[in-house]
Amino acid sequence: MRLSRYFLPILKENPKEAEIVSHRFMLRSGMVRQNSQGIYTWLPLGKRVLDKVNAIIREEQNRSGAIELLMPTMQSADLWIESGRYEAYGKEMLRITDRQERAMLFGPTNEEVITDIFRSYVRSYKQLPLNLYHIQWKFRDEIRPRFGTMRSREFMMKDAYSFDLTREGAEHSYKKMFTAYLRTFDRLGLRAIPMRADTGPIGGDLSHEFIILAETGESEVFCHRDFVNFDIPPEDVDFDSAEAMQDVFAKWTSVYAATDEMHDAAVFDALPEGERLSARGIEVGHIFYFGTKYSEPLNAKVQGPDGKEHTVHMGSYGIGPTRLVPAIIEASHDENGIIWPRSVAPFETIIVNMKAGDAACDGVAERLYEALTNAGQDVLYDDTDERAGAKFATADLIGAPFQIIVGPRGVANGEVEVKDRKTGARETMTVEAALARVA
Ligand code: ATP
Ligand code: MG
Ligand code: MG
Ligand code: MG
């Protein structure tokens, strides 16, 4: 992408409304724009990051055996009345009446819709286990939307729903998602800690929140320091093996971790001082096993091997992609801007041409741009005639892992500079060496 032809509305000033660093940098770098309270447009730079986050989520969901579909954002109230949640959900649900006076709503979650799909098609235990997911907009009329897309009213969620014949099967499904989540957050450059959680309006009796430690987090959390060093399950972990899933689950639940609602001070305080970690955290994912809470009222049954009808056991599993983007920024930035992990960087390399219009500089910059683009990299070429200082500030702000700086003095010697955004280290090298460095 050539910056001269891109749409990158950078803000020079710090927006007054932004209270936390991720919100500030997302506005300043032109990733998002508020449309109305808690409702955002994802501008091109932000859209790139969101797409990469979703791609990783999707890969790990698919790897675990979950199957993608796409349910609507608008739902009829009927199913919610049937499940008994229509009144119970309260004011967070945006209720709408259509022109035929039918009660509709903008889905805050999808247990009812998916259970209806399930009961319409699945009749036999032979079709189980089944896990269906989608990545779709949700709306919750949050009483206090804030921190940009961290807590917005319209937000994206990956929500998966598992169906099993037995509780035992459902627990295996739960552990599969648990494992997929550990891998997902790790690939996003985050250390997310699974903490026993309250189940809230979703209901149920087994639940973990995946929490990222950050000073600006809204939850108060307590956990063992060992979580920092636990190994992430490998790519080839066997999701079909109940034993392998149990091993992962056992390891990652072997030491203390709880949010404030579930906190047991007596147990936590008994840990040696050096092993205790009490901090603020951001909830980026939440998984639930809730048995027959929805399958019972909605009558989702299958025929078992015994020839009898069985109400299916269900779980639901959420991740918030539009919250993850600011969460990654909270975890990885400095005073100059964002430091993207490569896996989700909107651009992996930014080529800064310090003297656009100079034939020698243009030649080298174009050559780099072509080589990296052909190699399949996401590269931004700053070919504008801004002054060098402004270009450096923009490159740091939008936070690509590498910058290649092309200036007249270096080019005269056949050299360019490579800057590592994370360490700030700058090194002069040949064009070939620079290409190898950022490869
Ligand atoms: P919170 O406690 O932050 O209000 P929640 O517990 O209500 O979140 P869940 O119903 O567990 O949320 O939804 C699953 C995931 O969706 C959350 O873990 C979070 O990542 C994301 N999410 C929920 N509400 C929002 C929101 N208002 N804005 C952005 N993401 C959200
Ligand atoms: Mg909430
Ligand atoms: Mg919560
Ligand atoms: Mg939750």
From TrEMBL:
PROSITE patterns: AA_TRNA_LIGASE_II
InterPro entries: aa-tRNA-synt_IIb, aa-tRNA-synth_II, aa-tRNA-synth_II/BPL/LPL, Anticodon-bd, Anticodon-bd_dom_sf, Pro-tRNA-ligase_IIa, Pro-tRNA-synth_IIa_bac-type, Pro-tRNA_synthetase
Entries under CDD domains matching the protein: ProRS_anticodon_short, ProRS_core_prok
GO cellular component, one term: cytosol
One GO-annotated biological process of the protein: prolyl-tRNA aminoacylation
Keyword tags: Aminoacyl-tRNA synthetase, ATP-binding, Cytoplasm, Ligase, Nucleotide-binding, Protein biosynthesis
EC number(s) given by UniProt: 6.1.1.15
Enzymatic class: ligase
Annotated compartments: Cytoplasm
A GO term, aspect molecular function: ATP binding
Claim: Transport is one of the keywords in the record: no
Chief location category: cytoplasm
Aminoacyl-transfer RNA synthetases class-II family profile domain segment(s): 37-341
Subunit structure comment from the entry: Homodimer.
PANTHER family, per the entry: MITOCHONDRIAL RIBOSOME PROTEIN L39/PROLYL-TRNA LIGASE FAMILY MEMBER (PTHR42753), PROLINE--TRNA LIGASE (PTHR42753:SF2)
Job of this protein: Catalyzes the attachment of proline to tRNA(Pro) in a two-step reaction: proline is first activated by ATP to form Pro-AMP and then transferred to the acceptor end of tRNA(Pro).
Recorded family membership: Belongs to the class-II aminoacyl-tRNA synthetase family. ProS type 2 subfamily.
Protein name: Proline--tRNA ligase
Gene: proS
